[in-house]
Amino acid sequence: QLATGLNNRIANSGVAQRSGGDLKTMRLAQSCNAEYANYFGATSASQVSLVLAAFNATLTRCNGVYEKDLALHLNLVAASTSVIYYNPSTDPYSTTLSSWNLSLQQALTANVGSGNYDIGHMFGASGGGGNAGCIGCVCVNPANNNSLAKGAGITSPADGIPQGDNFDIDYVVHEVGHQLGANHTFSYANESTGVNKEVGSGITIMGYAGITAYDVAAHSIEFYHQASIAQIQANLATKTCPVTTSIAGANATPVVNAVSNYTIPISTPFALTGSASDADGDALTYSWEQNDNSTVTGANSKASPTKTTGPNWISFRPTTSPTRLFPQLSTILAGGLTTGPLAGGDAGTTIEALSSVSRTLNFRLTVRDNAPYSSTVPVSVGQSQFTDMVVTVSNTSGPFAVTAPNTNVTWAGNSSQTITWAVANTTASPVSCANVKISLSTDGGLTFPTVLIASTPNDGSQAVTIPATPSTTARIKIESVGNIFFDISNTNFTIGGAVACGDPAGLASSAITTSSATLSWSAVSGANNYDVD
Length: 533
What we know:
Helix content: 10-25%
CATH architecture of the largest domain: 3-Layer(aba) Sandwich
Number of helices: 7
Distance between the termini: 83 Å
Radius of gyration: 30 Å
CATH topology of the largest domain: Collagenase (Catalytic Domain)
Strand content: 25-35%
Structural class: alpha+beta
Shape: elongated
């Protein structure tokens, strides 16, 4: 699957901050060997419909990714039927996968013609991987009959099943991504392209999830990393073969607001929140990704609290929430600073880590509008936009942490209790957090709907009144005001029923008239109000 000829020029050509407000379409010439055709039951040209149905199933899945992330749609050219093969003994593809790139390029040149397609690809039924032939070479004709160019990308699955997401997402969109201009994004190895920005194997399309050392997960997610989107957009902007159609009036690009930069204490959770608007009212999704290139490899590519450069935060699927917690909530609620691998990942491969050392973290927020593709008027396709921000971790402060309640205590509702926390020099520069907000959860820390105090000095202690909301899964959250860091108590505590106040003593009356009287009594501890009958 490792592509050769990595193209540093594309990696360093600049970042596109948004989709271009248009749809790009390209012509795809798709070939297959006989084993692929036979897998789907086609043994002769009379059964070509079986192969075309398989092509279309994969292309539909892949186009869904290209459209959403790249504002790109690939159209299968009719001449693809001339490079579908049915007899393993006579097709141009030998049993040696490494020779398929050139065999494909030659087959397309001879049977389709260089002027009749923009990108060429080939599917096999087994063999264990793929090879794009070159990086960013769409639209480029081969220099001669022995050179690779736009028609040299191949994909053949390791498991012998050339269909479904294990094929379409783990392999096809990866190899096509190379052809479109993207390099690898994993960091277990460093290819010096400037985009090795994912922890370990990586998990987005241009990573190697599930097939290498330091796997973070068993399979890729169906999204390109922001670095890949930027590379592909930059490359396609230099090409003349895509047909570019304006979608003005059909779908507007989302507008993403700039995000401030922050300095935070070490070993302390934080949250990044963006905001965006869309003139069409599209259902926006948000993806916060780290944007730091790796300079270390192997075991050092895992997320680590002591890592001073490179990726420390895995990419997740975009969500409808503009906020991402670092680390994920389950890790925070367990009192952890690091997160282990996802299902199918290698044991010991951490995917998230709060920094215990000073370092700079660069982040990019990608907002997608997820607009559906339409080839008929009004022509439309998904659009996206980026914004960048910087989080500086300072070892002169932290960890900022809730210290009480931090055990399974029981507090009565309506009682006055003291919340405490470790300020850890967070009031001083460069963090400079003067005030904090204190909130209560009664569902184990999943939500914090009750604000106990909106702003109080960041001095480590605050008396609050606990609401009379019985719960055995209460948690306290203390978050910085005007900054992004916070902490949640590590253990559930219990809120019991309201304090039994008892009857007031020393009741006396005075100044009695026909219409009024003055009553007095001794105050009852814990009582907020009194009934007078």
